[in-house]
Write a structure and sequence with these properties.
Blueprint lengths: L1 H6 L1 H4 L1 H5 L29 H9 L2 H7 L12 H7 L3 H5 L3 E5 L2 E6 L2 E12 L5 H10 L11 H14 L2 E2 L6 E5 L13 E2 L5 E4 L9 E7 L21 E7 L6 E6 L5 E5 L13 H9 L9 H11 L4 E9 L4 H10 L4 E5 L6 H18 L4 E7 L3 H13 L4 E7 L1 H4 L7 E2 L11 E4 L28 E2 L17 H16 L1
Parallel strand pairs: 2-10, 6-9, 11-12, 11-14, 12-13, 14-15, 15-17
Antiparallel strand pairs: 1-3, 2-3, 3-4, 3-8, 5-7, 5-9, 9-10, 16-18
Helix pairs in contact: 8-9, 13-14
Length: 500
């Protein structure tokens, strides 16, 4: 039966493949209200197999958003307490912790402003046996006890990070200190700010989900050596300040003060910077919950070269993975790739439809924060929201998108069977975008001067839905994708073949 469900998985993808998403007005991005949550967290007596397969049944949304379906519908707040049988009194004695995301700051007529964002939470006590039961929900055909010791530890850590209790109506105070140890070439030539140390109380309390997100104005205080922060209109360098959340040892991050002009790279993470395989459920689960994060081929060398060769290159990492599980992402990035600011999915974007809008919302925010900077956009073809948003940004913000680089995962990974739509690239000059197969395809480009295309790399772009069965839609000038019924017949035939 499990094999039959897996074989019929392509049929579940038809709505996502063939239905055109509703357009989003980039001029007025709105945060959707918190959706009504259906209780998705398992009790320890649930049928774990049926729970996992209920998640994987939403594979179309999984691939459309570019994040695994097991990163949807996490319990929050009191739902965590009730699912674990923990009382408010048991939690009161626990210390408050803060997830503080690396920030970007911009220069305005009023000086430097920094966007501070993250989450306030408490970590309840959960027995190891209960953690193991919960971790097994997210693993397919394997028990946590059968994993190597290091993978058991990571699976438990990730599971515990999911079952935290967010704290609403909290004051957040951030202490800025100019004590960043900047590695040479680690982030486009970033430098430690010579002043700017201060404490700032955020203007708003945390949301019902424990989130905080606000721009705050920095005073140009004098540093210990008598220096000050350089005005953004008088320097091209990215200045850095460390941020320490008041009252906790867990809320440390770095703020990057980015000048009005220059180049910023906005990079996705899954299946472009690390091996995730979100399109293969079992592998995606193991790679996200248990296995150590692994770089994708020699992509770190590509980013290191860009950091060293493109002056004052600002790196910004954007993942729509929810906040609870992003610590591993940040640790991996800062051990493997150039330093930079970070965006993730706030908890009020918690259902599938909201997930599909959050990437565009965050992209609009940074484009509008830096209207004079040029952007390099990097991701892969498994994300339908990327395939729509990236070309739309080129048209919605004229002159700001310098390059679009998209890894064609289906060209090199036989496990990726999901189609992708290249229609949005039809009116974009070839020099501004490239579909690539391996990191080395990104060498010998001149990003600063707008040469973003390596003519030796075949593109095979049809400006239609591509990657359909039997090569349908993959040839230039080919017919449009067949009707829903015809595709269903083809995919059903493939499913039957898998059963035989």
């Amino acid at each position: 039966m499990a094999l039959f469900r897996a074989a019929l998985l392509p049929l579940a993808l038809l709505p996502a493949v063939l239905a055109a998403p509703a357009p989003v007005d980039p001029a007025h991005p709105m945060i959707t209200p918190p959706p009504t949550r259906v209780k998705r967290e398992p009790s320890l007596t649930d049928d774990i197999d049926s729970y996992v397969h209920s998640i994987l049944g939403d594979a179309s949304s999984w691939v459309a958003s570019g994040i695994p379906a097991f990163f949807q519908g996490f319990p929050t707040g009191t739902a965590v307490l009730s699912s674990l049988g923990i009382s408010d009194g048991d939690l009161d004695a626990k210390p408050t912790q803060i997830l503080n995301l690396p920030a970007y700051g911009n220069w305005t007529d009023e000086g430097w402003n920094v966007r501070i964002h993250g989450n306030v939470f408490k970590q309840p006590n959960i027995s190891q046996s209960k953690v193991d039961d919960l971790a097994n929900v997210f693993l397919i055909d394997v028990d946590i006890k059968d994993l190597p010791a290091d993978q058991q530890a990571q699976a438990r850590n990730v599971t515990e990070s999911i079952f935290v209790v967010q704290q609403d109506d909290q004051n957040v105070t951030m202490n800025f200190v100019n004590d960043v140890s900047v590695r040479p070439g680690a982030s486009g030539g970033a430098v430690n700010a010579r002043g700017g140390a201060q404490s700032i109380n955020l203007p708003y309390l945390t949301t019902a989900e424990g989130d905080f997100d606000a721009f705050v104005k920095l005073r140009n205080t004098t540093g210990s050596t008598g220096g000050h922060m350089l005005p953004g209109n008088a320097t091209s360098s990215i200045q850095t300040l460390n941020m320490y959340a008041n009252g906790t040892l867990t809320g440390n991050a770095t703020a990057y003060l980015v000048p009005p002009t220059g180049f910023t790279i906005i990079s996705d993470i899954d299946d472009i910077l690390r091996v995730t395989k979100i399109y293969e459920p079992k592998e995606g689960l193991l790679n996200s919950f248990a296995r150590p994060f692994t770089q994708w081929e020699n992509m770190p060398q590509i980013y290191a070269n860009w950091s060293a060769s493109i002056p004052d290159f600002h790196f910004h990492y954007l993942t729509t993975t929810p906040e609870q599980v992003t610590r591993n992402y940040m640790e991996f990035i800062y051990k493997t790739y150039p330093l930079g600011s970070f965006d993730t999915r706030p908890l009020n974007f918690s259902d599938v439809s909201a997930t599909l809008s959050i990437r565009r919302f965050l992209l609009d925010k940074i484009f509008q924060t830096f209207p004079q900077r040029k952007f390099v956009l990097v991701a892969d073809t498994t994300n339908s929201d990327v395939m729509k948003a990236y070309p739309a940004l080129y048209k919605d913000y004229p002159g700001q998108v310098q390059c679009i680089f998209l890894r064609n995962t289906s060209a090199t990974d036989s496990g990726n069977k999901f189609p992708y739509n290249t229609e949005g690239f039809k009116d974009i000059p070839q020099n501004n975008y490239m579909f690539f197969r391996v990191p080395d395809d990104l060498t010998n480009l001149d990003i600063v001067n707008g040469q973003c295309y390596n003519a030796t790399i075949p593109q095979n772009v049809t400006f239609k839905t591509q990657g359909l069965p039997f090569g349908l839609g993959n040839a230039a000038g080919s017919l449009a994708p067949p009707s829903t019924w015809a595709v269903a017949v083809v995919m059903f035939g493939m499913s039957l073949a898998a059963l035989l």
